[in-house]
Amino acid sequence: VGRAHGELHLLVNNAGARWAGTFAETGWENIDRHVKINFEAPVRLTETLLPLLRATAQKQQTHRVSIVNVSSTSGRVARAAAGGYSAAKFALAGWSDSLAAEEAKHGVHVGLVLPGFIATEGFPQAELVAHPVLRRIVSDPETVAEAIVECGLKGRAERYAPRPYWLAAAARILAPGLVRRAISGETLTPATGIDEHQ
After folding, report:
1. pLDDT in tens, the chain (198 residues)
2. Strand 65-70 to strand 10-13: parallel, antiparallel, or no bridges (unpaired)?
3. Which residues, 6 or more positions from 136, have their beta carbon under 8 angstroms from its beta carbon?
4. pTM for the structure as a whole
5. Distance CA 86, CA 132 (A)
């Protein structure tokens, strides 16, 4: 890239792969596979290109130089049977926060995009799309692209795609017990808050 163009203004790390399964069923191998693709690959690519990004930032006066890491809402709120995916995406989100603090003084902006359920060719989200209510939480790739533009070109630090997914992350902070129960499929009675499975 450096030899061909001399500069690099934007790096988008959008690696993504997911294999479902509980930890008891799939073990470490499943987590390792997720980490290699969803975390290690973006880290290694960034390591390779960071000197060029820094050099570009030193020369630039008018254009922003950015790294945008595409994590997932699952990188802030884990779901059952997605431990490997969530572990890798949590790692990517945490590393992004740290990298942003480190690279600010070098003129390199680091943004984080956290998509929710996105209907793509690889992940059509067919069950959710077919549901009369849940289909409302499914979005399209264009929504993610807009979030990447906001972080990469406009300097946003973090962006959920679509935006309302930030509520899930807020709920995880404010009421972690309730969120865990919801994720595990447990239900609470409205009046007492007692677990109906007891």
Report:
1. 777 778 999 999 998 898 999 999 999 999 999 999 999 999 999 999 999 999 999 997 778 999 999 999 999 999 899 999 999 999 999 999 999 999 999 999 999 999 988 888 877 788 877 777 677 788 899 999 999 999 999 999 999 998 888 998 899 899 999 888 887 765 444 433 333 333
2. parallel
3. none
4. 0.86
5. 27
| Catalytic annotation present for 85 | yes
Q: Which is the catalytic residue, given 42, 78, 85, 143?
A: 85
Q: Which amino acid is at 154?
A: K
For residue 117, give the nearest of 152, 164, 80 by alpha carbon.
Answer: 164
**Which domains are seen in the chain, by residue range?**
2-184 (3.40.50.720)
Residues 6+ positions from 170 with CB-CB distance below 8 Å: none
